Amino acid sequence: MNTKVEDAVERLNKILPLAERQKKLPHEIANVYQMILKSYVELGRTLNRSEIAEHVSDIDNAIDTLRSNDMVVFDNKDEPVGAYPFTMEERDHKVKVNGHTVHSMCALDALAVSPMFNVKTHIKSKCHVTGDTISIDQLDQEVLNKSENEEVHFGLNWNSAANNCCATSLCTEMIFLKDKKVADTWLSEDLDNREIFTLEEAIDFSTRFFKPLIM
Known about the structure:
This protein has eight helices and eleven strands. It is of the alpha+beta class. The chain has a single domain (1-215), classed as Beta-Lactamase, CATH 3.30.450.410.
């Protein structure tokens, strides 16, 4: 096992322990959490509040539980707008899956969708520094257009995890970088808090973190 990836997964699980939190959910809420995750791939969108209410005895308690555990992001009307790795917000990372185009909260999230659901995905994103297009065809942990992405790196700023919702903090600084030169320059600007990974390492990282959420 890649020690660098193992350490990163452990560190992210301390910041956002989704798998651990999921195990502690009441069965009814754990089941609806699974349904929310799968709805992005099956429907191209999240389940809404009224759809969730059909599967739980207390919708307000279910929402409070999922929100307080930072497992699902809700708007001010208690409508779900995101569940890692997905979001209904327009972000830089678009994922085409099962005929739908959905958004991911960050670059790591985008790479997780194919391994989580064992489906082919097409990721369209951009380099955080240069704005160059990043285009990745993925099946599980394999990059199908590898020759186009041999130099692509993934970067994250651990210091950006500054509040109770990773969607609006850490996720905003988990990024694609077009090549090693750009990645090294970006890294050098904050060696204490930033870290970079090859695309292969990033896919391994995303798989180890997110795949345990699908049961």
